[in-house]
Amino acid sequence: MVKAGTGLIDAALAVASTVVDPSFAGVSKPDAMDLSSDAAEHRVPMVGAIVSDSTNSMITDVKGGLSMKSQLLEMGFICAFIPCMLHILNLLLRNPIEKTFGKPVIKTPSAQQLIFIVWYAFGPKWDTYKLQYADMARDHGLEPLTEKFSEPILTRWWTLMRTATMLLDHWEGIHKFASYMFDSLQTQVKEKEIWEDIVRWTGPKSTLVRVQVAFLVAYGKDFYQPWMRYLQQKDEGQQVGGWKSKRMARAVVEMEQRLQALRAGAWRTAGPFWVEFYKNEFSQLGTADAARMKKDVEQFFDVALEVSRDHCHRWLRELLFYALGDDDAVAQPVAAAIVAALRGDAAVAAALDGAVPTMT
After folding, report:
1. Which uninterrupted H or E stretch holds 82?
2. What confidence score (pLDDT) does residue 64 get?
3. Can you say how many angstroms the Cα of residue 124 is from the centroid of all Cα atoms in its chain?
4. Helix axes 191-201, 111-122, angle to 10 degrees
5. Rounded to whole angstroms, how far apart are CA atoms 152 and 103?
6. Which H, E and C letters describe 254-284, residue by residue?
7. What phi, psi does 358 have (nearest 5°)?
8. pTM of the shown model
């Protein structure tokens, strides 16, 4: 469990000890959200919860106007702004990728650029290419492509991981097919340059790019995809989901624990996906590339932990603010689950209804 003294505990428990105010209890949510009510006119303190998708217009003042949060606070409302955990999870994919491997840049070899151009190359003529690919795969004893590549959009949660996984699974076949396309197209055809880049970056001299893709696939299978499924489930027996779910509060803590462990070196051994990555991919790198990849992995998880501190900690602070100040029936079980998890009190956490085992 998370040890006492970490920033996560300090942030959550500090808020929990200061926001309890009996005057907030029992305020109805419709009144708290009614900007035209007498409460708004007289600036009566109330607590309302607003669950957003973390967009800037909700929580951040932008040029030309105040955010919804600032407007409500100016009117005297006391509101908790609780971000969407699935959008935060997406930031745990997007930010580390872009800050570690960079954004897609034409003619620049990187995992994200390769993933993008593979989708781009196959997309326009998919119905034709899948048949040609099937013929090529049969001739070389390889598996055919059975589904279309998804456009790898980082704001669409799963699409990049899906395309990256297909690319890694069909690496040899994609290299052979790209070589065929490059040889068969006329020199002046624009697509020829795209297929040329795919040939170059999937070839034997681009092992580092392959290892980058394999790392993203391992991260997706071990961390991103399991948590994406988990966060959309409801508490067992209670059918409570979303931000009021006990599993959500526990997940925030356990997600950070997992990222801390991976940053400390667990990416070499912690689970079958990481063992496979380290043995079959990372270990194939030369000394210089291995040193660079190790540094990239550490930076990747450093950025992920920054996201957790910036967004997951805020999620906990806002949830505690709302839960402890508004609805006692919600406050007690949710606060108990959070505090037990934060303190690492396994006995208390296990005794809670809907307690969820640590994901390893």
Report:
1. strand 78-83
2. 59
3. 29
4. 140
5. 12
6. HHHHHHHHHHCCHHHCCCHHHHHHHHHCHHH
7. -60, 135
8. 0.76
